[in-house]
Specification:
single chain; mainly beta; Immunoglobulin-like; 2 domains; 5-stranded antiparallel sheet; 3 helices; elongated; disordered C terminus; Arrestin C-terminal-like domain-containing protein; sensory transduction; Ig_E-set
Length: about 350
Amino acid sequence: MGVTCQILIDRPEDGAFKAGRLVTGTLKYFIDKPTKYERISMCFLGKGDCEWTETDAKNTLYYQNKEKYINQIVNVYVRRKSEDFISGGFEYPIQFLLPIDIPPSFYDKICTIEYKIIVTFAKANSFSKKNFDVRIPVTSYVNPCTLEPITFGLKKNLSFRINNKINVKGEISKTCIKPGDTIHMTLTVNNGTDLAVVIKTELIKRLTYISKGNHKKYHEEAVKNTCTISTVAANAVANLVCLASTYHDLFSIQHAKVMKGEYMIRLKAKLPFPHANALLDIPVVIGQRKHEVIAPAAVYYEYNREQPSHSAMLDQNNKFRNEEDLTKYEKEDLNEDSEKYIKEVNGKDIVQEEI
């Protein structure tokens, strides 16, 4: 039988570990007969991988990317004497500290972001190794795209008509929400045309996969049951309240180089043929902010052995004493991609796109 191993994890109530928090548990293993091991170790590994192919008329192109988020190793046992043999049952505490700046666990056909604890039994004088592992589900914090309510506008001019202007102004009171919360949006639609216009809003999920050479693949889908549709009569003004309820399993994906996951409210003014529709995407972020996932003060090991160094992470994790400090920091350190997106969408308060 050799060695048997159990990796028992103290799972949180919601089933997932938060970035910046401890992963704890107990390692139990049993060696049925005296065996000479060079080393028994635990590794906490977090990594992201993506790969896909694209085919044109002549070629098939292969894209991939990978990165590591955490790679902590603890030696449970190291052989000291050439004659050391060990057998019997043993226990060892599991304590690993998740960094703050990591993406959440994610799995689909193109990309995997996963965290694992891997226990390795390496025999002496041999290349033989036996591995046991357990997957650790992780959720992470998000950087808001803005800390203030976001205002936006959409204008549409109809060609070859005297009364030809449609003007939509709106506001989203809170653009960074927790999973399961509702996005509130107010719209004022001034329809100065002699045509009825349909105003549609919907929550959109967009995944962007990023290869090593920065080639990108996009996947976009509407989130079910988030669509609102209203008709504004010709030469009328309408005040609309639009609600988009999110789900507990929705979350933005940040802090990764292999992919990003974004959400947006898509505002569309739909017009009868032959007029083109007008469309605007307003970014929103779904997830917990940093002050909601602050890490504990320290990591302690029960064994009198050298523990892994967590000092570099602890300083960052305990940087914010309260939400006010965190908010001040976020204003100075908004996610660069989100900040650029806001400037593109909202720089002049009005964006128009013909489709």
